[in-house]
Design the sequence.
């Protein structure tokens, strides 16, 4: 089994936001929720870089450690998923996440949050793979179809990489060596406890 | 002095530029002069958040990486859970030990059969509204701390999820009657709970809790009850304020504020729960005759004489016939 990770090569990202759009369309993500977003650092300044960010599917995920109802689980591919039937929308995972991944639809009075929604690494939820119930709650299950997450697959500059951590780290490492620079594997240190060294 | 320092700084800056310039020119590569994650983190220190611009309406999504959130996760996941368990289990153990050693505190002179009105219906209504809402709030809150290790294995994920979801709804709604009755309790009893010299005497002899036959004089509320009163008022106020902020995260501010309010809320709740467990014990199985004060509102005269001698004098001295309606001390 692979250890799935995301890596955004910020030196290639052109902030086209196609990953964001593709994600929303593929999973029919509700209004107001962005499972993936592109953040531009040093906007308008020399050295500006854009980073596409979603749930990083952390090792020892902090969201899972604080969840009071224990609705998170890690798949064999090391993808961090959650069960929306168990989730109570308390918001703790959003307090704990370093990447702002958990999102909530506002469903009722006060600040009541609905069931948490986040990137599933295109691999659905606890329901049977590719079932209608799974699609309604979590969106498409591309991993079950043998495909990688759509955001990375359709990235026009191949900035966003998805796949086995060792393989995408090696691809990134080669790029950095070839072109002579790299702004880093964004979020890796916080998600996986190690970054890509070149 | 100041001018000299500025001049020195300017000089060293000019020197640095002069030294650096040829080097930078030699290997200029515009695409390589990018921000790097490592450099950003170093510049930010330990408290920082790497953020930028986003083109979606939710501007808070501009926070790219917030490593400090993991500190809260560790604090909540370990420290808060441990402290809460220690507070609740520790208090239960202490009370069990107290019961084994001291047993039930009896009315030394026996029950007289005559009763005095101690708490009128408004006081009892306020107390029981506060008490019942607190118990549900405390249990649904405690469920969020230890439920996943205690109740989840018993019920299974589906039933536990449903229970916790209802617990959250109950927590959100019952917070309001809790706050109203907390304010009512404060108004009803604050005058009689202002600390005075008698309390020092009461505390010196441990309230007679640990020794049979010792009964320090007290007015309507003794020092122990005053401790409960102020714990409930101050703890309840802290819980209300932080809870309100957690209920309306938009008013509270940002993630850092929510994390702060959550920590205060959880720690105060654990402490107050421990105190209330002791209060429930002494008001029920722990002491003979104590429950009547909040049950029927009428306490036995001998119980009252032993635990609230000065209050009995006040009530008896001020009344002309019956004790009814004389729950508050007359002058």
Sequence:
């Amino acid at each position: 089994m692979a250890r799935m990770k995301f890596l955004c090569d910020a030196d290639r990202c052109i902030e086209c936001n196609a990953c964001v759009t593709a994600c929303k369309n593929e999973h029919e993500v509700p209004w107001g929720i962005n499972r993936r977003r592109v953040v531009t650092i040093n906007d308008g300044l020399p050295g500006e870089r854009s980073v596409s960010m979603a749930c990083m599917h952390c090792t020892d995920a902090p969201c899972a450690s604080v969840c009071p109802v224990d609705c998170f689980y890690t798949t064999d591919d090391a993808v961090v998923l959650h069960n929306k039937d168990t989730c109570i929308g308390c918001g703790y995972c959003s307090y704990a996440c370093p990447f702002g991944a958990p999102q909530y639809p506002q469903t009722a009075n006060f600040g009541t949050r609905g069931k948490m929604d986040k990137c599933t690494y295109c691999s659905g939820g606890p329901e049977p793979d590719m079932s209608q119930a799974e699609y309604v709650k979590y969106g498409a299950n591309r991993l079950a179809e043998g495909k990688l997450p759509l955001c990375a697959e359709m990235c026009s500059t191949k900035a966003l990489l998805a796949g086995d951590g060792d393989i995408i780290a090696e691809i990134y490492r080669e790029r950095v060596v070839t072109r002579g620079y790299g702004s880093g594997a964004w979020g890796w240190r916080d998600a996986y406890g190690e970054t890509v060294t070149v | 002095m100041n001018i000299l320092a500025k001049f020195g700084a300017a000089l060293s800056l000019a020197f640095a530029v002069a030294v650096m310039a040829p080097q930078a020119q030699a290997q200029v590569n515009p695409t390589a002069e990018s921000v790097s994650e490592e450099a950003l983190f170093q510049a930010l220190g330990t408290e920082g958040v790497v953020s930028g611009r986003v083109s979606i309406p939710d501007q808070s999504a501009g926070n790219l990486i917030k490593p400090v959130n993991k500190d809260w996760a560790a604090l909540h996941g370990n420290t808060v859970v441990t402290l809460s368990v220690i507070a609740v289990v520790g208090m239960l153990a202490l009370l069990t030990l107290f019961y084994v050693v001291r047993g039930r505190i009896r009315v030394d002179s026996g029950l007289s059969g005559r009763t005095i009105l101690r708490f009128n219906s408004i006081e009892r209504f306020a107390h029981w509204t506060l008490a019942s809402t607190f118990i549900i709030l405390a249990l649904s809150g405690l469920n969020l701390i230890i439920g996943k290790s205690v109740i989840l294995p018993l019920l299974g994920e589906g039933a536990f999820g449903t229970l916790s979801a209802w617990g959250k709804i109950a927590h959100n709604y019952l917070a309001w009657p809790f706050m109203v009755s907390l304010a009512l309790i404060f108004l009803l009893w604050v005058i009689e709970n202002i600390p005075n010299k008698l309390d020092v005497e009461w505390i010196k002899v441990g309230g007679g809790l640990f020794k049979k036959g010792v009964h320090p004089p007290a007015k309507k509320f003794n020092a122990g009850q005053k401790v409960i009163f102020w714990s409930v008022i101050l703890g309840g106020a802290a819980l209300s304020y932080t809870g309100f902020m957690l209920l309306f995260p938009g008013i509270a501010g940002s993630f850092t504020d929510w994390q702060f309010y959550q920590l205060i809320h959880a720690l105060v709740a654990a402490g107050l729960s421990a105190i209330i467990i002791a209060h429930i014990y002494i008001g029920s199985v722990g002491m003979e005759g104590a429950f009547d004060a909040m049950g029927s509102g009428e306490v036995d005269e001998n119980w009252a004489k032993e635990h609230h001698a000065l209050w009995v004098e006040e009530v008896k001295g001020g009344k002309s016939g019956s004790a009814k309606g004389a729950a508050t001390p007359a002058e």
In short: Chain B touches chain A through 59 residues (CB under 8 Å). The first strand of chain B starts at residue 50 and ends at 51. The first helix of chain B runs from residue 2 to 26.
